[in-house]
Amino acid sequence: MLRIGGVNIPDNKQIKISLTYIYGIGLSLADEILKKANIDPQKRGKDLTSDEINRLKEIIEKGYKIEGDLRREKMMAIKRLKDVGCWRGLRHIKGLPVRGQRTRTNTRTVRGNVRRTVGSGKRKAPAPK
Q1: Domains in the chain: boundaries
Q2: Handedness of CA 67, 61, 27, 42 (dihedral sign)
Q3: pTM for the whole thing?
Q4: pLDDT tens string 50-102
Q5: Is domain 2-67 given the CATH code 1.10.8.50 in the classification?
Q6: Measured between alpha carbons, how far is 69 from 8 in angstroms, rounded to an integer?
Q7: Which of 59, 65, 88, 114 stands 20 to 30 A from 41 (CA)?
Q8: DSSP code for 7
């Protein structure tokens, strides 16, 4: 099994798709990397030669931030927003949508799928005695 950036890459998938298992690499970036490395995107991970694997590793490790470095950078950017106390930072602290989405509805994923409505609000009649 091929290992790049601390991530095991599947052997039986196309290398273009396999590279997306690495945090920070999507389909368009995978295409760009494979073009630089002169590797056919349709090739499977198990069909790569050792020379192609070395070229891939070299291009990815030297030219792109992936996995831990990228996660750390992202966390530091959010921490900076919180420390400054700007609007986006306050929204991160409160666990609400940051980019201007409405909050009356459609924010369940950010709030943790909280359903706060109880029902129709109409009280039930007391049971007869």
Answers
A1: 2-67, 85-111
A2: negative
A3: 0.73
A4: 999 999 999 998 989 998 899 999 999 999 999 999 999 999 999 889 998 88
A5: yes
A6: 17
A7: 65
A8: E
